[in-house]
Amino acid sequence: MKQIEATGKTLNDALTAGLTQMGLSLDQVDYEILDEGAKGFLGIGTRPVRLRLSQKDDPIARAEGFLSEVTRLIGLDVSFESEMDGEALRVNMSGESQGILIGHRGETLDALQYLCSLKVNRGREDYIRVTLDTENYRAKREQTLINLANRMAQKVARTGRRMAMEPMNPYERRIMHAALQNNEYVVTHSEGEEPNRRVVILPKH
Predict the structure, then answer these.
(1) How many other C-beta atoms are found inside a 10 Å radius of the C-beta of residue 24?
(2) Helix or strand or coil: residue 190?
(3) Final residue of a domain: which of 117, 135, 153?
(4) Which residues span the domain enclosing 106?
(5) pLDDT at residue 195 tops 60
(6) Beta strand pairing status for 78-85 and 186-191?
(7) What does the pLDDT read at residue 97?
């Protein structure tokens, strides 16, 4: 957490100096008065007001700071649009070469999301769920998985034989299970150990 000390002739002067140095607004910091200052005889030998300013814990700032550093090291120019919804933080990334951030079947994006979540939640008592997205990949992938689940369910219903999907991460498996939870012809469950755990579709008996 960013923290500095600042001084000024008055409280307002010290605050202004500290906020300017931190590049933040008053609502983004907490401050503690270390010395209220003092004026000598006829104002001679004035001791300035001294403050300690601390940046407030901001999940968006944590997330964007982490992602900015990672993408800079990769050599990508990325911008961010972030929003908090209760205890959920969603960050959308945009820029060139976003395919690098997505990776094969979203593996790089998932890894970045995991690391970003660790950064955001470090030292916090309440857990914030972090979701990263770029080029609307999450929604596109979700629709692809729903379509796949329905196609495979039709095949299982037609042949009466179980089918095992390719290994998927927990997020993608949940999409598959949810897509078929009300299907009248098939049931699903997961088998195997991570990272090779997969969804299995079976006919209802």
Answers:
(1) 17
(2) strand
(3) 135
(4) 59-135
(5) yes
(6) unpaired
(7) 81
pTM for the predicted model, two decimal places: 0.66
Name, of 37-51, 111-125, 136-150, the range with top average pLDDT: 136-150
56-60, 106-110, 155-159 — which is least confidently predicted? Answer: 56-60
**Reduced DSSP (H G I as helix, E B as strand, rest coil) percent helix, strand, coil of the chain, to 5:** 45, 30, 25
Q: In what order do the strands lie in the sheet with 3-8?
A: 3-8, 49-55, 29-35
**Residue 187, amino acid:** V
C-beta separation of 102 from 134 below 8 A? yes
What letter represents residue 181's amino acid? Q
177: left (phi over 0), alpha (psi -120 to 50) or beta: alpha
pLDDT at 98: 84
Q: Say which CATH number the domain at 83 has.
A: 3.30.300.20
Q: Which amino acid is at 18?
A: G
The two structure tokens encoding residue 173: 């498996």
108-121 average pLDDT score: 93
Residue 35: name the closest of 21, 53, 48 by CA. 48
Q: CB count, 10 Å around CB of 101?
A: 23
